């Protein structure tokens, strides 16, 4: 545990250092973004032949804010489409883009392509390390323990230009950084890569649940990208728990699992365990008959310390059902980000999701904040959702209590 504590202290120490020096770090981040992407078509359109290296930080930030406009994803679509079609000249980044992420579509009402680079995977690894460090202050876990993770790489496809397209999580779960994360945090997902990347949601969920129960005594926490996924998985479990019990008892795999790679991977891990199957059966009968499945998670995974997923925003409606399954088990809201970039870490994981606080990580992107003021009508009544925007300010000038819209300038050429 001492080694783990030292790792956690190191990453929190790094975060505290960059946070205390956020103004300087943000200037350095903008400079790094512009230097790494110097000469790309999009920046040349606005900055021309400006020599970034010869400017001091204040001049650079002022020039950038005055010359490079704030745009929506629609403004960048033509560039990203050219990349998707196979154009290899540096349009948005100097780093070659071979992979595109597909956003959820919650922001603009439609899915969109977002460049995914090595930097994207590295920042994901860093925020997971940082998040684990903050959680360990309140919910320390055993090294070598398991995580019941409902994670799905999903299906990928190719663009006309041969670029791979999938969700950002799919790219991350397939990356070396995902393997590194497990080794660094000493916490290992219950399911092998074949299940994570299986491509069939129902079959993969069944395997996640089966393997989660196979390793039930080792599970330290339950997690997923989004809270609705956990709710969906356990709603499914209410229907198929008898089949899972039979598989655990016999060391078999139900015929509903038809994908050969899933069958091979799961059957290589499980063995007949009649005593565990009997315990699960007794527990499920009690949960179903007397408790309405309340407390399902701590009943079946008695060593679990907490549940972690994104629980804010559009995930809030799922908290009631998630709390039903969790009973007194703490709900920890995962970190704040978008397909374009991670933004902030949950620094107080002991707080309920409704009160969560995120702290911006100033090395991940260059952040600007547009102040929003509620418009008032003639009767001096504020109109919900109707705002007046002011000029954007940098992270160092953000004021407590003021509402803002966040603007990102990322290493992958999007803002």
UniProtKB/TrEMBL annotation:
Coiled coil: none annotated. Keywords: Ligase. The keyword Transmembrane does not apply. InterPro entries: GH3, GH3_M. One of its GO terms (cellular component) is cytoplasm. It comes from the Eukaryota. One of its GO terms (molecular function) is acid-amino acid ligase activity. Residues 359-413 form the GH3 middle domain. Belongs to the IAA-amido conjugating enzyme family. This is GH3 middle domain-containing protein. It comes from Capsella rubella. The lineage of its organism: Eukaryota, Viridiplantae, Streptophyta, Embryophyta, Tracheophyta.
């Amino acid at each position: 545990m001492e080694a783990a504590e030292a790792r956690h202290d190191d990453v929190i120490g790094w975060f505290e250092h960059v946070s205390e020096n956020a103004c300087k770090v943000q200037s350095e981040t903008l400079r790094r973004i512009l230097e790494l992407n110097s000469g790309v078509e999009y920046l040349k359109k606005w900055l021309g032949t400006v020599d970034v290296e010869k400017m001091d930080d204040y001049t650079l930030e002022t020039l950038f804010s005055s010359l490079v406009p704030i745009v929506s994803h629609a403004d960048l679509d033509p560039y990203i489409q050219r990349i998707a079609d196979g154009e290899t000249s540096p349009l948005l980044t100097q780093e070659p883009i071979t992979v595109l992420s597909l956003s959820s579509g919650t922001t603009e009402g439609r899915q969109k392509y977002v460049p995914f680079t090595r930097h994207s995977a590295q920042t994901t690894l860093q925020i997971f390390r940082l998040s684990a460090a903050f959680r360990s202050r309140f919910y320390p876990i055993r090294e070598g323990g398991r995580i019941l993770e409902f994670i799905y790489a999903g299906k990928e496809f190719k663009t006309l230009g041969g670029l791979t397209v999938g969700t950002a999580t799919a790219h991350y779960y397939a990356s070396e950084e995902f393997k590194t994360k497990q080794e660094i945090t000493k916490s290992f997902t219950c399911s092998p890569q074949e299940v994570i990347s299986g491509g069939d949601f129902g079959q993969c969920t069944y395997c996640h649940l089966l393997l989660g129960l196979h390793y039930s005594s080792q599970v330290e926490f339950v997690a997923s990208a989004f809270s609705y996924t956990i709710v969906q998985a356990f709603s499914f479990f209410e229907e198929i728990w008898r089949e899972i019990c039979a598989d655990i008892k016999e060391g078999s795999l139900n015929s509903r699992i038809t994908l050969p790679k899933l069958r091979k991977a799961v059957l290589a891990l499980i063995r007949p365990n009649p005593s565990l199957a009997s315990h699960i059966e007794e527990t499920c009968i009690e949960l179903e008959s007397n408790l309405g499945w309340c407390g399902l998670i701590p009943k079946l995974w008695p060593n679990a310390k907490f549940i972690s997923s994104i629980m804010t925003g559009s995930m809030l409606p799922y908290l009631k059902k998630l709390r039903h399954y969790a009973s007194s088990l703490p709900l920890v809201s995962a970190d704040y980000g978008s397909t374009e970039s991670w933004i902030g870490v949950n620094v107080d994981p002991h707080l309920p999701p409704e009160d969560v606080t995120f702290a911006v990580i100033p090395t991940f992107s260059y952040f600007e904040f547009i102040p929003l003021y509620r418009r008032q009508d003639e009767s001096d009544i504020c109109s919900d959702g109707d705002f007046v925007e002011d000029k954007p300010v940098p992270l160092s000038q953000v004021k407590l209590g003021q509402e803002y819209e966040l603007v990102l300038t990322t290493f992958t050429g999007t803002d």
